[in-house]
Amino acid sequence: MSKLGQVVESVENYNKFVLDQVKRARTDQKFGRDLLGRWNDTKAKIPVTRTPTGLPLPRLALPEIDEPGEIARFIFGEGLPGQFPYLNAAYPEMYLEPIREIESFDKNGSRSRSALDTGKKLTQPEEPTRLFSGLMLAEDTNERFHYLTRHQRTHRLSTAFDGPTLYGLDSDADGVFGKIGEGGVAIDTVEDMVRLYDGFDLGSANFSASMTISGPAPMIMAMYIAAAKRRFGPKVVSRLRGTVQADIFKEVQAQNETIFPIEPSLRFLADMVEFTTREMPRWYPISISGYHIGEAGSTPVQQAAYTLSNGFAYAEMFAARGIPVDQFGPRLSFFLDCGLDAEYIALSRVSRRIWAIGMRDVFGAGARAQLFKLHTQTSGRSLIAAEFKNNLTRTATELILSYMNATNSCHSNSADEPFTTPSEEWIRLAAHGQAILLEESGIFKHTMNMLSGSPGMKAVERAVEAAILNEFREIERLGGVLAAVEERYQRSQIQNAAHRYEQQIYDGTRPIIGLNKYRDNDEDAPEVKLVRTPRAKQQLQVDRVQKFKKKNAEKAKRALDQLATVAERGDNVFPALLEAAEVCSLGQITGRLQEVVGRFRPMV
Amino acid sequence: MSSPIRILTAVPICDGHDSAINTINLEFIRHGIEVIYLGYHRSVSDIVRAGIQEDVRAIGISSYNGGHIEFFAAVVDLLRKKGADDIKVFGGGGGTITRDDATKMRRKGVDEIFFAGTSLDDMVKFVHQRYGKPRSRRPRPQSFDQELAHKLTQIEEVYGSGNRKRPTPRFSRAKRALNCGGLTPLSPRTSKVIGFTGPGGAGKTTLIDELVLRFLHRNSKGRIAILSHDPSVVGEGALLGDRATMINSQHDRVFMRSMATRGQAGGLSPATHDCLALLAQSNFDYVIIETVGTGQEAMPFQKNGIVDSTVLVMNPDYGSRLQLQKIVMLDLADIVVVNKSDLQRARTAHTEIEQRLDQNRRHQQLVDTVAKRHRDSGADRLFELISDRQ
Asked: How many CB atoms lie under 10 A from the CB of residue B23?
């Protein structure tokens, strides 16, 4: 049995355990009394907050239960926010506005007040908003980053790369000219990387960079480190914060941006993880992503099931490399898509619970390594070109669903995304959508669990969990994640689901407003400002990378030879990549490594 | 009965968005169209080379990652430069291609751009209407590959869409068609022909592509031809997808042609024999023919005398020893390959097959390979065996 089969068993066992606890709370009087006591203590300690109109509300809402069996079902089955199995949230407080005064109910039920320690400055929690951006050349994206973070306390940048970069090619590669700077930023060398984050303090606790790239992730990571060292000296490395996506499985299953065969791709990934978990304790070297699986057309259940099973497969692989689970576990992060289907009401909640149980009971992970730390993005696929302003409503609905699932961070799509890299006008609305929801509306800022635990939500949770476990069983039957990937199981499942989705749109069983329902006579093409990279900029990028390669030709040759030698030997390539990143272009490194390990053979 | 429409579909370089094209491919083949799918992240030269070799009526490009104006124009230009502008270009990209873009692209020679919301039915209708009529006059071929591709099309068209009325004698009918076209008459064969067969999923395509890589390295000038087969589905369309995984075979020194079985059982097309005969006389160093993943029957081209060596590629998971007894090809193949020999079951498979081959006393060779592995030593050995065979 692979670890995934054990995860299925562990969740089943845990569910049995919860039922046993419920029964015990009802039959074992002492146990029941203890639970009730703990429950009342918890309730008594909940601070009270006030809405702008003065209405008192608890900072944490709990179900109205006073029977030990039901209390056991909640405590063990769901957990308080921040407590195992983390169904409600990974942390005790999220999105809540700071309070100036703490009120709480004492044991007798009357309210008491205590002022906060006035010596301390009130700390605002950090914003969960992350806007994914990347356009044209490094300096253009840099300008966009500064624009996006101008009102933010913390600078959390999320970077999109252009096609050539995602495929590990240089901007002067044959036939890619028109793609330079389209859909993301063009990065060829460490010099581009320096320009990309110029003006930001990379070593600061208030800064982090997320880089959405997987195939060439180890190379891009090495370039990021090299750029940070150039600007802030070698000591900055251990202070760097951020995330690099580096998810090979989902690339092979859905997104198709893989450049080496699967096995060496996984090997280079593990090399990087080994390095960063040791040298960069604040870095997330992998973001296990369902987003692209969802966007490629999977069902929500497939998305969660493949993401979680990929995660467990990585955990198995890193553990086999000898990295302790409590070292790599806290450095894993997740990324899910949030669309409009009913499953999204609880998809991430259920995922968080399955992950925690699996990590604890199969991998022996401690508390920090059990957390399913989640970034959510609203569904790009749900946005359409016809009557595109409706996309604002779609994204807003998805945002509510995302925060109902207690995502740790979130990106909201711009309404103009079906046509173009977002323009400032629409990206601003997308960012403001999050601010309106979290800061203006009272839905999330006063009370944790505001929208948790409705009977409908629980019904979705049960159905989704059962369906995810069934998917796990199927993958297990095929011999585990890697074997299923090689058989293209996930790919064909996703393709079937995508085909069904399209069929449903065409036959009208899946209503898309403005497209197959309530469609007015064909509107004129919308007036949308297109963001396209001018030819002159594309040419500038080509000139830059060629100049860099010419300047460093000698040094690059030595660094590449060294890299090839290490790769041939099967040693950890990451230190050699760090050397190479100083003097080689991305395309040079890709090309040399492909000579050693081969190219990825696409799956159809 | 006329032949099905053949079109090529692909996603441009640096673009992995294949969800739309996968759906469209399925819809096309359901409506009788033969689709040669080149896959995603494909360069202009790969697309044009494939379009010419496969001699398709049109190339459909699905682009979601920007740069479409330049990319589509580059495909049209290169086709024109190669004298192949009878191959038309159409495509789409959801909302990423605006109406203004589409106008520019049409001006540059693109036939049609589909916008978001176009129904699959409309796309199918477009392909049938625009590319369904017989081609009027072909332009004079400007290259060896183009001439060869035209001849292969003529042969396929002689056989129409199925083998209901089998022309007899087959070869002479095709030959007549060729001569009518005023092309050079057939000359004696010059190539070594190797047949590959084996069950679906055994890894034939990957293995052939690995052998091609070795051939290209070994020979600085030589050329190789591949005739690959995929099954037609009910309704007479077919998805011909081998090119998408054959990364090394997208090369100017490789001529590849994908054929649909068009209703014939046994893993080959009614036109295979004549097409193979033509390729075998066309000065390639090697001609490789790959059947559809077959079951237990003998390879149909075994008796026709054109194939010099046959390779049977096995998956170690063939089931019980009893199953093995039913595989007639084990008696006929010159070389038997156990691919995926990294699987647990492979050792047993090797032993069982070895015993079976020993009984035959035909000096058949048995090779273990892991085709998916870069520089696999088993694939090296297979390459040497094939090179050494006379």
From this structure: 20
A286 within 8 A of A312, measured Cβ to Cβ: no
> How many separate domains does chain A show?
2
Domain final position from A62, A83, A98: A98
Predicted pLDDT of residue A600 = 95
**What's the number of domains chain B is made of?**
3
Q: Which of A515, A547, A562 is the last residue of a domain?
A: A515
Question: CATH no. for residue A335?
Answer: 3.20.20.240
Nearest to B16 among A182, A257, A598 (CB): A257
Q: What are phi and psi of A101, to 5 degrees?
A: -135, 135
Question: Rounded to a whole number, what is the distance in Å from the CA of A299 to chain B's nearest CA?
Answer: 13
Q: Does B72 touch chain A (CB under 8 A)?
A: no
Distance CA A406, CA A557 (A): 49
Q: Are residues B171 and B110 in the same domain?
A: no
| Angstrom distance (rounded) from CA B62 to CA B309 | 40
Tens digits of residue pLDDT in A335-354? 999 999 999 999 999 999 99
DSSP code, position B320:
S
- Residue of chain B whose alpha carbon sits nearest to that of A598: B374
Q: List the one residue out of B1, B22, B14 whose CA is nearest residue B44.
A: B14
Domain extent, residue A18, equals 3-98
Question: Which residues have a Cβ under 8 Å from the Cβ of A55 and sit 6 or more positions away?
Answer: none
Residue B150's domain spans which residues? 144-180
The percent of residues above 90 in pLDDT, for chain B, comes to 62
Q: Which of A178, A257, A296 minimises the CB distance to B19?
A: A296
Look at residue B139 and tell me if it is in a domain. Answer: no
At A58, is the secondary structure helix, strand, or coil?
Answer: strand
Average pLDDT value over all residues in chain A: 93
Q: Does residue A329 sit within a domain? A: yes
Rounded distance, CA B233 to CA B236, Å? 6
